[in-house]
């Protein structure tokens, strides 16, 4: 009630400073618009950089062992997997590449005519043990059997309509078969046909933020006596990845003196590399957010201290008429709260307008309302902090000021 | 009179240190932010080939079928194998270069040299002269070497340093993809940014470690990719192991045309080639060729990264907020001077004179803010350079940005000052003088 009684005189005082008040509200509204959208972008990037891929990331390492055409090399694909599995600390190994490495979506077709794609999904291929090395979680159907797998030489660079067994992510299954009956269905990409034998919970080949990140098919083939260069995956015992990956890479190079071991990375390194430019851009935006908050705080406290100086005499009179220091402090705090609230209300419109612009130009998603609430809270807090100094100075004005120079 | 106004402005600065300081800081922060992004933008949109950009052209033809759904009308950026060979043989330009890139297992021809993957650009002889590549040792290979599929190689300075300790390696041998190549040249530092001639994997990638004759490279025993390969139809991976797949484009092609007549002639030749290929049944579409100059090509490809464009918009948003902030503070400052202004008016100064005086004061704030903003922009660019992204390394403070920063600072301060100055000049002298 006390507060309410205070508001009326504040409003009438503000009416005589329309210009400055409008400008301050405008500044707060603009700050809120930019702040809300920037925090949304930064938070989205951070969230994305922690999004799980669905594979046992902390245990997976990748070795790119490039075969040199025309160079003799004793190792074969099947032996390489055995060599890797025998390395100390290694639980499982396969030929293939993990999420974040050279992944592109393929058009997926419902029939062999392959004329009209029904989805664009990541088709992940690997050797025997691929699904167990990645540590995928099967929620329906079954994993691959040894008897299932086609021989690499029967499928490599060939187009075939004989269905290959495949695991499908839940997300893709729901997209393609809303009736929930994905098992045993046949579908096609540009080159192969696939039969769904099991559903896995997640397999994100990339984390772009697009709706089809988790749309994937995984298929395995049997590798045997061929000299096979390319990516090999290992899965280590928990907590032993660095040593296990090092040992595995050394063992693989020893078994393949004709290969060039070009890259050896843990999944954590691949993830860091994948997100590094996004996160760097995020840090730039955080710097901009900081600048914005500083500028707005400067504006608020600058105008407030101007008003305090201008009203010294009136403050003195109020004090002389019995107002306490607390009353004066409250007055300026309440005034700031009212101005910031006006700015915040206007800021909601500005924020949505800016969001529309960014959506249109930079494919940003729709700004959720709770970011605006957070922005409003931040600005209220900032305003109170910025006004505190000038308000304390106002509260310190002695009542005697009222008697001077009247 | 202006000198007097400057003096007044400085006095008022001293008198109201806090307000003036706050305004200066607001302008400085806005300028620091926006000039940082302007400098980045300026670096990224620079001309990678000053002096030669007007002579370099990027031909495109359209071999795609007519019934491609959702395909743009623009022909593919790169050429298919067949078009690359045909256009290379067509002549019609004083110089031309066909190219692509990948990485190849390579070692020096010595028993203890370890095999490692090195990036290479496969191209034809004119590449070096067309793009003004400086040589440290030796020279480019000849057109004859291209025709003979000679096994010769040109090294970058860094690779020569790594394999041969930086000495003149011309005449030494390398084993590339199991075949022996002779070094014919070593180039000096050369890394045009944007890397206009091949922007498939990003416009700000580094130049490659070595250069091989294109047709020699194609015939090597290799399957290490052929650069980013784009295929139409339902199998995007059709060209993965076979660069000659007819529906896949991957080869970049550039020509040098020295006169407008040559440009017109080449344009006609592209049309004619397209028509002829259509007659042969290879092309389905009506001739749909392009011949963009280097700068047009970079514009067309929007080489500035999206994050940079967005950050630039945001930085100018910050500047706008700083300006609104300054307007507010200036209104306050001029209002406080109402008495002073009233006296000036009463003593005969016109509204115009008061207005100019206030604007001068705003301009002084701008200059001060700009001077303070420069080190902030320098700091901002240092931050940009710390980013682990390919374009960041080239972010530096160009002397031309100095002028832009100060100009922008003064302009924004003046713009922010116009309205407060106008208000100040409307002060009624009688009212003010009365309350003195």
Describe the structure.
The complex is a heterodimer of chains A (406) and B (436). By secondary structure, chain A is α+β, with helices and mostly antiparallel strands. Helix content of chain A is 50%, strand content 17%. Chain A contains eleven helices and eleven strands. In chain A, strands 3, 4, 5, 6, 7, 8 and 9 form a seven-stranded mixed beta sheet that branches. In chain A, strands 2-10-1-11 form a four-stranded antiparallel beta sheet. In chain A, a hairpin with a 4-residue loop joins β7 and β8. The model of chain A has no long low-confidence stretch (mean pLDDT 90). Chain B is built from 14 helices and twelve strands. With 436 residues, chain B is an alpha+beta fold. Chain B is elongated. The mean pLDDT of chain B is 90. Chain B has helices at residues 2-15, 17-44, 81-90, 126-130, 143-147, 157-164, 214-218, 260-279, 294-300, 306-336, 338-346, 351-385, 399-425, 429-434; strands at residues 56-60, 79-80, 95-108, 116-123, 135-138, 152-155, 173-176, 179-187, 210-213, 230-231, 248-256, 290-293. Chain B is 48% helix and 16% strand. A six-stranded mixed β-barrel of chain B has the order 3-4-9-6-8-7. Classes of the chains: A alpha+beta (406), B alpha+beta (436). Chains A and B meet through α2, α8 and α10 of A and α2, α10 and α12 of B.
Question: What are the secondary-structure elements of chain A, in order, as H or E?
Answer: HHEHEEEHEHEHEEEEHEHHHH
Tell me the overall shape of chain A: elongated
Number of domains of chain B: 2
Mean pLDDT of chain B: 90
Brief digest:
The complex is a heterodimer of chains A (406) and B (436). Chain A is α+β, with helices and mostly antiparallel strands.
């Amino acid at each position: 009630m006390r507060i309410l009684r205070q508001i009326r005189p504040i409003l009438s005082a503000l009416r005589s400073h329309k210009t400055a008040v409008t400008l301050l509200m405008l500044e707060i509204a603009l700050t809120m618009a930019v702040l809300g959208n920037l925090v949304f972008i930064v938070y989205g990037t951070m969230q994305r950089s922690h999004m799980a891929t669905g594979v046992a990331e902390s245990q997976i390492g990748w070795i790119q062992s490039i075969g040199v055409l025309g160079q003799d090399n004793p190792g074969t694909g099947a032996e390489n997997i055995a060599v890797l599995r025998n390395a100390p600390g290694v639980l499982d190994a396969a030929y293939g590449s993990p999420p974040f490495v050279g992944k592109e979506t393929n058009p997926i077709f419902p029939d062999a005519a392959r004329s009209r794609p029904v989805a664009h999904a990541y088709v992940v291929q690997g050797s025997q043990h691929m699904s167990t090395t990645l540590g995928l979680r099967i929620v329906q159907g079954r994993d691959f059997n040894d008897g299932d797998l086609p021989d690499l030489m029967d499928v490599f660079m060939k187009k075939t309509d004989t269905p290959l067994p495949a695991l499908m992510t839940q997300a893709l299954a729901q997209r393609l078969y809303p009736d929930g009956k994905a098992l045993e269905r046949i579908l096609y990409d540009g080159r192969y046909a696939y039969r769904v034998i099991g559903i896995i919970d997640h397999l994100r080949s990339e984390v772009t933020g697009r709706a089809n990140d988790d749309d994937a098919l995984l298929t395995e083939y049997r590798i045997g006596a061929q000299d096979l260069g390319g990516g090999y995956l290992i899965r280590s015992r928990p907590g032993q990845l660095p040593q296990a990956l090092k040992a595995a890479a050394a063992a693989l190079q020893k078994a393949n003196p004709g290969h060039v071991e070009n890259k050896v990375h843990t999944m954590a390194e691949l993830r860091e590399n994948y997100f590094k430019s996004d996160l760097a851009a995020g840090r730039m935006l955080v710097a901009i957010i900081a600048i914005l908050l500083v500028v707005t705080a400067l504006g608020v406290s600058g105008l407030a201290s101007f008003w305090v100086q201008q009203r010294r005499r009136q403050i003195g009179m109020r004090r002389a008429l019995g107002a306490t220091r607390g009353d004066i402090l409250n007055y300026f705090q309440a005034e700031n709260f009212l101005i910031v609230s006006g700015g915040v209300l206007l800021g909601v419109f500005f924020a949505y307008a800016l969001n529309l612009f960014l959506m249109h130009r930079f494919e940003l998603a729709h700004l959720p309302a709770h970011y605006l609430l957070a922005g409003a809270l931040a600005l209220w807090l900032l305003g109170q902090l910025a006004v505190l100094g000038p308000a304390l100075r106002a509260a310190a004005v002695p009542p005697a000021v009222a008697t001077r120079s009247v | 009179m202006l000198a007097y106004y400057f003096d007044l402005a400085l006095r008022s600065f001293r008198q109201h240190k806090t307000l003036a300081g706050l305004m200066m800081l607001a302008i400085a922060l806005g300028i620091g932010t926006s000039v940082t992004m302007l400098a980045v933008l300026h670096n990224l949109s620079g001309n990678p080939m000053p002096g030669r950009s007007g002579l370099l052209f990027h031909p495109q033809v359209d071999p795609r079928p007519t019934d491609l759904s959702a395909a743009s009308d623009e022909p593919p950026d790169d050429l298919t194998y067949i078009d690359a060979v045909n256009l290379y043989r067509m002549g019609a330009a004083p110089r031309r270069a066909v190219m692509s890139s990948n990485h190849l297992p390579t070692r020096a021809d010595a028993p203890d040299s370890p095999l490692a993957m090195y990036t290479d650009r496969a191209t034809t002889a004119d590449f070096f002269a067309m793009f003004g590549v400086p040589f440290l040792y030796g020279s480019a290979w000849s057109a004859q070497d291209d025709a003979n599929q000679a096994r010769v190689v040109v090294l970058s300075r860094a690779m020569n340093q790594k394999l041969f300790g930086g000495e003149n390696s011309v005449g030494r041998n390398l084993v590339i993809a199991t075949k022996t190549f002779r070094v014919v040249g070593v180039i000096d530092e050369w890394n045009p940014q944007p890397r206009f001639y091949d922007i498939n994997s990003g416009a700000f990638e580094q130049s490659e470690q070595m250069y091989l004759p294109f047709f020699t490279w194609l015939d090597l025993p290799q399957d290490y990719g052929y650069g980013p390969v784009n295929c139409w139809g339902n199998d995007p991976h059709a060209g993965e192991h076979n660069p000659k797949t007819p529906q896949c484009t991957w080869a970049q092609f550039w020509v040098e045309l020295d006169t407008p007549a040559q440009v017109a002639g080449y344009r006609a030749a592209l049309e004619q080639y397209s028509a002829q290929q259509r007659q042969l049944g290879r092309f389905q579409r009506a001739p749909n060729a392009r011949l963009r100059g280097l700068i047009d090509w970079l514009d067309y490809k929007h080489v500035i990264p999206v994050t940079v464009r967005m950050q630039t918009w945001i930085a100018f948003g910050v500047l706008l907020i700083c300006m609104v902030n300054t307007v507010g503070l200036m209104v306050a400052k001029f209002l406080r001077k109402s008495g002073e202004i009233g006296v000036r008016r009463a003593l005969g100064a016109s509204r115009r004179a008061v207005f100019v005086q206030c604007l001068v004061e705003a301009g002084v704030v701008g200059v001060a803010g700009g001077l303070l903003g420069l080190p902030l922009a320098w700091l901002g660019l240092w931050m940009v350079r710390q980013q682990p992204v390919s374009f960041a390394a080239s972010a530096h403070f160009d002397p031309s940005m100095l002028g832009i920063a100060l100009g922008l600072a003064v302009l924004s301060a003046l713009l922010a000052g116009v309205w407060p100055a106008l208000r100040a000049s409307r002060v009624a002298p009688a009212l003010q003088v009365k309350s003195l």
